[in-house]
Amino acid sequence: MTRQQTHKLAVAVITIVAAIVVIPIILVIGVVFWNGLPALSWEFLTQPPTNGMREGGIMPAILGTVLLTFGTAIASFPLSIAAAIYLAEYAGDTRLTRWVRMAIVNLAGIPSIVYGLFGLGMFVLFFGFGTSIVAGALTLGILTMPVVISTAEEAILSVPQEFRTVSLSLGATKWQTIRHQVLPNAMPGIITGIILGLGRAAGETAPILFTVAAFYLPELPKSIFDQTMALPYHLYVISTQVPGMPLEIQYSTALVLLLIVLSLTLVATLVRTRMRRRREW
């Protein structure tokens, strides 16, 4: 077999494998859109559920998801970016940092239900927050930290060393170099990791099942120590626990959750593209 034939065979195999992965995803998204759009309306997005969740809308679940997402951002991202800066710029390549990086990678692969049980024991019971927004946000924050740390560290390490060398040679301190040279050029990758973390937090069910989510609440939460409804758990409830639930409401709820996650991904893509155009290398 010649080199050209080997190349064509490799391209064909990669194309087939990519199609096997992409086509089912497109079909799932298409089915959700096809079955969910007919019931999607302004009332569905702005009204609470009624008649045992078989009628009405999903506004409390949307609000709860937004609150948990913002809470996750506040709880996770400052610490995650600070940890990434320390590992990439200050820690050096030692045995301890290698163990820390390996632990971060392993934490990213732990099933989300384990984080839910941890949040139940730590924030709900030990700290006494109860099943509340703060307990759910802290649990989701810990869940997203490994992904954000790894992504941010890789983005920081990808900045050419010449930027640091020139900045330090001109008299800047190490922190000034990081703040004015490294972070602005690493920001596209950091923002990508942040948005991916938010997307994962918005779509998780197991952690909020133990720490914050409620089956149904007639009133909206008044503080961060109240329970709240959330789209992932609400979708699970109406799909498995409510008899006689109209199929279009289930698909519409799934569609709203899918649109939120896709919107976060789209925002990450647009921000990354725009910032890369402004990058100096």
Q: Can you walk me through this structure?
A:
By secondary structure, this protein is mostly helical. The protein has one domain (40-278): Orthogonal Bundle (MetI-like fold). It is built from eleven helices and two strands, in the order H-H-E-E-H-H-H-H-H-H-H-H-H. The chain has a two-stranded antiparallel ribbon. A hairpin with a 4-residue loop joins strand 1 and strand 2 (55-56). Helix 3 runs antiparallel to helix 8 and helix 7 runs antiparallel to helix 8. The longest helix has 34 residues, at 3-36. The protein starts with a helix and ends with a helix.
CATH architecture descriptor: Orthogonal Bundle
What is the overall number of helices?
Answer: 11
CATH-defined fold name: MetI-like fold
What is the string of SSEs from the N terminus onward? HHEEHHHHHHHHH
Instruction: Give me the oligomer status.
Output: single chain
Helical fraction equals over 70%
Work out the count of structural domains.
Answer: 1
Shape designation: globular
Give the N-terminus to C-terminus distance in angstroms: 41 Å
Structural class: mainly alpha
CATH homology group: MetI-like
Could you name the CATH class?
A: Mainly Alpha
Q: Please tell me how large the radius of gyration is.
A: 22 Å
Mean pLDDT: 88
Task: Enumerate the spans where pLDDT stays under 50 for 5 or more consecutive residues.
Answer: none
Work out the strand percent.
under 5%
The main pleated sheet reads as: 2 strands, antiparallel
- Across the major sheet, the strand order is 1-2
Record field, number of beta strands: 2
